Amino acid sequence: MKRHYIISALLLCCSPTLQAYTTFAQAGAKIGGLSYPEPSPYTIMADGTTDSHTDAVSHAYGSVYDQGFDVNTSGGFSYRRQAIATADASPGTLKAYASAGYFFEGPHLPIYGAVGTGNAEFTDTFSIFSGKSFVDINIEYHLSGSMQGLAKVKGGLKISSYDDTFNINASEALASPLQFACSANISACTGKATVSVPSNWDISISGFLEVLAAANTAPNTHKYGDAIANYGNTARIFISPVDPRNKIVSSSGFDYSPVSVPVPAAIWLFGSAILGLFCRLRRSF
User: Fold this and answer.
1) What is the pLDDT of residue 49?
2) Of 115, 97, 127, whose CA–CA distance to 26 is shortest?
3) Is the pTM of this model over 0.90?
4) Domain assignment of residue 242, yes or no
5) How many Å apart are CA 54 and CA 90, to the nearest integer?
6) What is the domain count for the chain?
């Protein structure tokens, strides 16, 4: 009986550490105060949610709408202000969307605008089993989406082990194209990097994505319009070993390796049709 206990204890000690992954999502929409580049705390209307989970995805949503009526205008309103924001967080995939609009017809223009903000984050751990003490891996923070008006987005990836930490940060704003800022131990600062991490060890990984869209941010200039920061399905984090013989195992079970895009079935059908037509023409000749 004692031998069974000893074997069970050894198996438990030698097994990979079981860790939980976490997710966090926050979305907010508000009317009031200055809304760009940083939202003012002054608020007339606000709505939003915060959601966080362990071993589960998180989702948040916020929406506000405000309208002033005016029978003397063609549309029957003097102004309209609205903002919407959403955020979703899961291992390796972050989504965030924000929009804000401000439109007016009447002569009496409220001085405060609208803003939407979304924030998504996750944490996880992974291990690489190898006979070497350190192995090289490829890490990537992929960010793409669309913006218009007064909008901005930023995000980042962080890899940490017992002896080193690697960071890739990305940002984009009005009149400022997508750019990256990396930690000093990453030589080429782009969305991709090759780094060395210890094998047979739990390594932490975290990522975040934040978006903001604002309308009517300058009260004294009567500026108005709409803005959108649409990064609803674009922030992805990839990890892959340089040597394909090494395997990466995450605590969440999520596969962080880049997935090749499959050829659509329609392409194969089209190719078969062309091949069949060619064979028929050849038999005719």
Assistant:
1) 97
2) 97
3) no
4) yes
5) 10
6) 1
